[in-house]
C-alpha cells in the first residue's frame, strides 16, 4: 500500500489546480488526475518491492559465493598441510621396507626412519587439533584477572624454546595495571601463540619485547614486538587468514594467528599487526579495561 502522506499532498495540489479550471471540468480533471496519480504510485511501489526482492536475492548469492570461496581456501590449506607430512611418511615407509629387506636388517637406521614417521604423525595431529580450535565456538568465562600474570606465565614457558637460540624476552609490564575482565585460559593461549610466533621470527640472539599497559581510553593492551625481518607489506592484510604463513614448509600450520584473532574477538578485544620502522613486527591486543566493564554493568 503506498504511503498516504505523499498522496494526500499531491491531491491537495491537484485540488488547487482544479479550482482554477471552469466547472464542471474542474471536478472531472481532479478525479482523473488523482486516479492516474494513484495508479502511478502503485506501479512505483510494486517496482520498488521487486527491486528489493532482487537485491536480497543477489545479496544471498554473493554471501554464498563468499562462503564457498572461503571453504575452498581452507580446503586447499588443509590439503597442502596434510599432504606434506603424508609425502614424508610415504618416503619413510619405502625406506623402511628397503632397510628391513637387507640381510641383516639395518635396525638402527630403521629406528631413525620410524622416528621420522612419528614426527609427521604428530604434525598431522597438531594440524587437526588446531583446526578443531579454529572451529570451536568459545564461550569465555569472564572474571577479574591480571593480564600481567597471564602474560608472564606464557613468557616463562616460551623462554624454554627461546633459550637454545639465545633469544631474549624483554618484559615491560605496567605494574599499576588493574584487574580486567578476562578468561585466563583463553588469554594464555592467545598470548602463547603470539610469543611463539615472535620467537620463531627473530634470528639467533634476537629480542622479543613484551609490553602491557592501559591506553588513554582505559583499555588494557598487550604489545609483542620483535626485531625480526618484519611482515612483507603485500601480505600484511592476510596475516590472520587461516593457513596463511610466511614460515618454511613444515615450520608452521598458519593457524596460530587465526586462532588468536578468534580468541581476542571472543574476549571483546581487537588484535592488529604492523611493521616497525627499521625492522621487526608488532602485534597489539586491545582489551576491555576496568572502566569499560563498569560502564557495561
UniProtKB/TrEMBL annotation:
GO molecular function: ATP binding; phosphorelay sensor kinase activity
PROSITE patterns, sorted: HIS_KIN
Keyword Transcription regulation applies: no
Residue span, Histidine kinase domain: 77-291
Keywords associated with the record: ATP-binding, Kinase, Nucleotide-binding, Phosphoprotein, Transferase, Two-component regulatory system
The keyword Nucleotide-binding is assigned to this record: yes
EC number in record: 2.7.13.3
Stored SMART domains: HATPase_c (SM00387), HisKA (SM00388)
Catalytic activity: ATP + protein L-histidine = ADP + protein N-phospho-L-histidine
Name of the protein in its database record: histidine kinase
Protein source organism: Fundidesulfovibrio putealis
Lineage: Bacteria, Pseudomonadati, Thermodesulfobacteriota, Desulfovibrionia, Desulfovibrionales
